[in-house]
Design brief:
10 helices, sensory transduction, olfactory receptor activity, membrane, transducer, 2% strand, disordered N terminus, Olfactory receptor, mainly alpha, Rhopdopsin 7-helix transmembrane proteins, three-stranded mixed β-sheet
Amino acid sequence: MCQCGFMRDENQTGEIQFHFQPFSPILEVQMFIYVSFLLMYIGSLIGNATIFLTIWAVRSLHIPMYFFLANLAVLEIFYSSTVAPLALVNLLAMGKIPISFTGCGTQIFFFVFLGSADCILLGIMAYDRFVAIQDPLSYSLVMRWLLCAQLAVGALVLGFILALLLTLFIFHLPFCGHNRITHFYCDVLPVLRLACGDTQMPEAMIFITSVIILTIPFSLISISYIFIVATIKIRSAEGRHKAFSTCSSHLTVVLLQYGCCSLIYLRPSSSYNPEMGRVVSVVYTFVTPILNPLIYSMRNKELKDALNKFIQRTLIPYKN
């Protein structure tokens, strides 16, 4: 029988280390994946930073909708940066660079923390659109700046609490024997598969967390959009098109984020497929962060015009 300890096993004299499994044993394939990931990561940093700076610099965008979008852009930058740098290093090293027990726990914490806040914020943005479209005249009275700040902070606090609890549940388990993670970062389900203790409580916590950050916000988003479609009363075709363009941008991001996460986390842990999980994870760790700024900037004319003016003003110096 395996003799397991919290931080050590019988074959180790130091802290437990985890190794990531390469996508492919072929170096050329690894290099292709590395370049693809690197370009997506750089693109997400540039895109989200541009969205944030544009909203910060252009006064006409200083309204609650863009306040939440700026918060989402910042979250996406930190969220992708939690995963991408270590993943890129290990792609180059063919998975030979380990991550420590503490480092793995830290990565899971920030991944769940920022990912949870991201999903909750998308739910808040749906509520903001619902208020704006249902009763435009009282929008500024309902969505006060104090309330907006409280909602944004609330998303962070709830994400922090869920991440802390989930990380403690998982890393309180003993780990021993084979510590190779079939993934490109420390995710909750691949790491949980390596534990040699009773995993019922952590699995229950994963399910509860998934319901809180996926099912409940998505249900509220769906209800909000049902009411938006049912109650929209914008007379002009241009105004109606503007409202639906804004909502469709948000809905596209929601379907990408929630759809991929639900495939992984809203299912029994026993049915988890490591290879499928790794492929689907690429979408919400690398693809979605770069698509968010593209989707919002392409579908939202007001933001698109502001972006063009901001880029021209930044890159092209004024002439006297």
